[in-house]
Amino acid sequence: MEQSFIDEMKEALKTQRSEILKSLATQNDDMKNLIKTVESGDEVDIASDAIEGTLLDALGAQDSKRLQLINNALDRIIQGKYGRCLKCGREIPEERLRALPYALMCIQCTTEEERRHR
Questions:
Q1: What is the Cα gyration radius of the chain?
Q2: 51 pLDDT exceeds 60?
Q3: Which one, 29, 43, 102, 118, has least CB within 10 Å?
Q4: Tens-place pLDDT, residues 20-30
């Protein structure tokens, strides 16, 4: 996977994260200072358990899950593991990552997981 694509996805993930955090800030004035701390820090600071826990408590379940997936995807970029299926290890197609930048698995493995959980 080319670095330019990974950089593009990193920016898309950061944008999505910012949208969730801005939505939270409009819902709760007390969270504005905490969000400013998160947005001004680097990736290591953002992953802080205390900050993340407080944010996740304030978010709805859907946004909470999405924020966790986004942060995990950003972590995988830092680790050099982004774009690989967590189940089979194959590269996830760029088309899937463009549609869902925080995808954990390729379509085949996702389909298998969904079948198992029915």
A1: 15
A2: no
A3: 118
A4: 888 776 666 55
Cβ within 8 Å of residue 58, ≥6 positions away: 24, 27, 28, 31
Concatenate the DSSP letters of all residues of 54-111 into one string: HHHHHS-HHHHHHHHHHHHHHHHHHHT-TTB-TTT-PBPPHHHHHH-TT--S-HHHHH
Task: Give the Å distances, CA to CA, from 39 to 22, 63, 83.
Answer: 10, 17, 24
Instruction: Look up residue 94 and give its two tokens.
Output: 């760029």
Q: How far apart are CA 26 and CA 109, in angstroms?
A: 37
Token pair listed for 2: 């080319």
Give helix then strand counts, H and E, for the chain: 7, 0
